[in-house]
Task: inverse folding
C-alpha cells in the first residue's frame, strides 16, 4: 500500500510536466527587414496566421504556434546570423519570410546545412527556387511568371506607341528594363535606373517626357520612390499612361502619390476584395487587429505561417523536415488568394495575375 | 533640346538649393567648432517629421508646420549641444569625442523616430500647384524652396558679415583662444552656431518634405551628399557649400540628358575627387597652417 502511494505520488508529480511537454508550442521562425514598412507588413500577416491557428486549437493535438521574429535589415550577413540563431538556439525547424532576394539567397545554404525548411515570401529572384535541396519554397510570383500575364496585357490591351522605363538600380530593375526592351524593341525610347536612396526624380521624369513616350513603366519596389515618380510625372504634366510593374503597387503607395496615382495600372496575385471565405476571414482578422485592410505582402506572410503549420499538422510532426516538405508539395492549399500548389522546384503557383488600376484613389480590378 | 536643358536647369537649381542649405549648416558647425556633426541629417529629418505631424496629422496650415519645425529642431539642438557637444568639446581629444557623441545622437534620434512613428513614409502638404513658364514647369513648392533658400543665404551672409554676432562667430572660427582673450564668450558663440545650423537643417527638412515625402531615413540619405558638398567646397567654407551644392544639383540634372543618371553622378564625383587632388583643402577652403 505504501509502495502504491509513493508510485501514485511520483506519477502525479510527473504528469503535469509530461503534459506540459506535449503541449509545448511549435516555434516557427520569421525573418524580415522589420524596421521597414514592407517587413512590418509581412510580420503582421504572419502574426494573424498564428492567431487564427491558435484560436482554432493549434496543431498536432493542441500545440500552439509561437513565432520567433528576427530583423534582417535587408543585409545578407544579418539574415544569415538570424537564421543560424533560429536553427541552432531557438529550436526552430521552419523559417519563413524575407523581402530581399539577396538575403534569401544568402540564408538558403544555412537552411540546407541545418536540414531545415525555408518558405521565402517576397523575394522574386529566379535562383531562390533553384536549389537542389527540397526544403526551399517560395510564395511570391517570379518576374517570368508576372511577364507571362502582364506582357500580353501591355501589348494587346494598352498598346503603347513609345515606351519609357524608369527602374530602380537592382537586379529586378535591370531585369525589367531588359524584358521591356525585348517586348517592345525600338518602341523603348528612354530607359534609366535610379539609386535606391534617390528621392528627387524630376530630372529623370523630364527626360522621359522629352523622349516622346506615351507610356512610362516604373520598376521599383519602394513605394516612397514610385510614389514620388508618379508625383513628378503629374507635376511635369506627363499625360500618357503610367504602368507600375506587377507586384509592386499597393494602397499605401497610392495614398502617398495622391491624385497623381489616378489612372496608373499594374497587376498582382492578390486583391483584398477577392470573394472567398478564406479571404474574408483573413481580411476580417487583420482589420480587427491592425485597423486596416491587408494586401499582398501581408498575404504572403499569412500564407507562409498557415502553410507551414498545416503541413506540420498533416505530416504529424514538427521536426521531420522531409515529411513536412512532402506535405507542402502534395497539397493544394486554400488561401485568401484562391488555391496555391507548389511545383517540383518549390515555387508557388496560383493562376494568372489580376490586372489592377487606381480609380478614385483606390485599387480596383481592371478586367483582363 | 533647349527646352529640355532649361527644364533640367530649373530641376537642378531647386535640388541644388536643398543640397546647399543642408551643407551650409554642416560647414558652419565645422567652421566654428571644428567638429563634424553626424546628427545634422537627423535635424533635417526632424524638420520633415514636425512638418508632417503639423500638416497631415494635426491638419494645421503648412506655414505653421514650417515655423514649428524651426522652433522644435532648435530646442532639440539646444539639448544635444548641452548634453553631447559642449561638455566634451574642450576635453582632451574633444573633437574626435564629439564626432562619436553626435554619431550616437544621430542613431538615438533615428531609432527614436523609427520606434515612435514607424518606417512609414508620409505626405506633407505644402504649396499646391505648378508654375508654367512656356515649356518649363516647376511646382510652387520648388519655387518656395528656391526663394526661401536665396533669402536664408542672404540673411546668413548679412549676419556673418555685418552683425556683431557674425563678427564674434568669425572671431571664434579664426581662433577660439584669441577670441576668448578679447572677451568673446566662446561657449555661447559655439552654442548659437550649433543651434542656428540645426534650425537651418530643420527648416530645410520642412521645406523639402512636401517634394520628397517625409521618411525616417531622409536624414541618412541626405547627409552623404551634404558631406560630399562640404568636403569639395572646403571644410568650413560657407561659400563653398553654397556654390558646390548648387553646382552638384545642376550638373546631375544636365548630365542626365546625355548619359544614364547614375553614371553621371559617378563622373561628377570622380571629377570632384580630381579637384581634391589639386586642392586638398577644397575648392573654396583655406590652406591649413
Result:
Amino acid at each position: 500500500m505504501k509502495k502504491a502511494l509513493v508510485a501514485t505520488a511520483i506519477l502525479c508529480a510527473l504528469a503535469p510536466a509530461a503534459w506540459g511537454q506535449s503541449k509545448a508550442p511549435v516555434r516557427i521562425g520569421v525573418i524580415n527587414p522589420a524596421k521597414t514598412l514592407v517587413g512590418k507588413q509581412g510580420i503582421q500577416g504572419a502574426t494573424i496566421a498564428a492567431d487564427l491557428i491558435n484560436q482554432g486549437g493549434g496543431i498536432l493535438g493542441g500545440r500552439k504556434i509561437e513565432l520567433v521574429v528576427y530583423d534582417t535589415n535587408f543585409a545578407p550577413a544579418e539574415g544569415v546570423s538570424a537564421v543560424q540563431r533560429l536553427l541552432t538556439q531557438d529550436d526552430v525547424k521552419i523559417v519563413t519570410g524575407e523581402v530581399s532576394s539577396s538575403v534569401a539567397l544568402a540564408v538558403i545554404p544555412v537552411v540546407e546545412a541545418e536540414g531545415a525548411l525555408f518558405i521565402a515570401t517576397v523575394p522574386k529572384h529566379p535562383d531562390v527556387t533553384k536549389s537542389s535541396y527540397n526544403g526551399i519554397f517560395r510564395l511570391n510570383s517570379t518576374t517570368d511568371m508576372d511577364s507571362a500575364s502582364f506582357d500580353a496585357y501591355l501589348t494587346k490591351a494598352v498598346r503603347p506607341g513609345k515606351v519609357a522605363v524608369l527602374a530602380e538600380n537592382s537586379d529586378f530593375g535591370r531585369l525589367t528594363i531588359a524584358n521591356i526592351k525585348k517586348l517592345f524593341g525600338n518602341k523603348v525610347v528612354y530607359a534609366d535606373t535610379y539609386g535606391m536612396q534617390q528621392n528627387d526624380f524630376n530630372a529623370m521624369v523630364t527626360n522621359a517626357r522629352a523622349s516622346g513616350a506615351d507610356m512610362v513603366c516604373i520598376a521599383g519596389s519602394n513605394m516612397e520612390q514610385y510614389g514620388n515618380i508618379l508625383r513628378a510625372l503629374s507635376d511635369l504634366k506627363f499625360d500618357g499612361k503610367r504602368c507600375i510593374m506587377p507586384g509592386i503597387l499597393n494602397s499605401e503607395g497610392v495614398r502617398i502619390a495622391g491624385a497623381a496615382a489616378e489612372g496608373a495600372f499594374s497587376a498582382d496575385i492578390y486583391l483584398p476584395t477577392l470573394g472567398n471565405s478564406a479571404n474574408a476571414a483573413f481580411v476580417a482578422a487583420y482589420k480587427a487587429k491592425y485597423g486596416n485592410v491587408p494586401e499582398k505582402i501581408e498575404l504572403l506572410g499569412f500564407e507562409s505561417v498557415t502553410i507551414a503549420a498545416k503541413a506540420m499538422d498533416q505530416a504529424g510532426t514538427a521536426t521531420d523536415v522531409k515529411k513536412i516538405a512532402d506535405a507542402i508539395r502534395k497539397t493544394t492549399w486554400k488561401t485568401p488568394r484562391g488555391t496555391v500548389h507548389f511545383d517540383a522546384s518549390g515555387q508557388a503557383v496560383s493562376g494568372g495575375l489580376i490586372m489592377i488600376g487606381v480609380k478614385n484613389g483606390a485599387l480596383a480590378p481592371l478586367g483582363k | 533640346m533647349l527646352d529640355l536643358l532649361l527644364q533640367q536647369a530649373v530641376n537642378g537649381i531647386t535640388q541644388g538649393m536643398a543640397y546647399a542649405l543642408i551643407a551650409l549648416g554642416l560647414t558652419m558647425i565645422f567652421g566654428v567648432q571644428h567638429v563634424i556633426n553626424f546628427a545634422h541629417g537627423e535635424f533635417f529629418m526632424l524638420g520633415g517629421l514636425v512638418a508632417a505631424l503639423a500638416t497631415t496629422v494635426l491638419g494645421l496650415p503648412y506655414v505653421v508646420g514650417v515655423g514649428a519645425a524651426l522652433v522644435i529642431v532648435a530646442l532639440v539642438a539646444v539639448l544635444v549641444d548641452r548634453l553631447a557637444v559642449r561638455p566634451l568639446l574642450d576635453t582632451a581629444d574633444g573633437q574626435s569625442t564629439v564626432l562619436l557623441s553626435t554619431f550616437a545622437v544621430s542613431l538615438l534620434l533615428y531609432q527614436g523616430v523609427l520606434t515612435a512613428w514607424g518606417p512609414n513614409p508620409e505626405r506633407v502638404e505644402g504649396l499646391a500647384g505648378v508654375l508654367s513658364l512656356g515649356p518649363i514647369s516647376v511646382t510652387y513648392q520648388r519655387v518656395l524652396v528656391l526663394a526661401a533658400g536665396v533669402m536664408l543665404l542672404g540673411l546668413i551672409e548679412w549676419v556673418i558679415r555685418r552683425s556683431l554676432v557674425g563678427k564674434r562667430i568669425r572671431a571664434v572660427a579664426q581662433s577660439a583662444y584669441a577670441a576668448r582673450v578679447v572677451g568673446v564668450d566662446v561657449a555661447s558663440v559655439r552654442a548659437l552656431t550649433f543651434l542656428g545650423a540645426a534650425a537651418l537643417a530643420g527648416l530645410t527638412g520642412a521645406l523639402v518634405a512636401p517634394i520628397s515625402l517625409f521618411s525616417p531615413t531622409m536624414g541618412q540619405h541626405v547627409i552623404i551628399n551634404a558631406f560630399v558638398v562640404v568636403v569639395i567646397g572646403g571644410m568650413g567654407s560657407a561659400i563653398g557649400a553654397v556654390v558646390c551644392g548648387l553646382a552638384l544639383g545642376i550638373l546631375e540634372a544636365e548630365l542626365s540628358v546625355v548619359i544614364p543618371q547614375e553614371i553621371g553622378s559617378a563622373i561628377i564625383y570622380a571629377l570632384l575627387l580630381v579637384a581634391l587632388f589639386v586642392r586638398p583643402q577644397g575648392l573654396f577652403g583655406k590652406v591649413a597652417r
The longest helix of chain A spans residues 2-22. The first strand of chain A starts at residue 26 and ends at 32. The two ends of chain A are 80 Å apart (CA to CA).
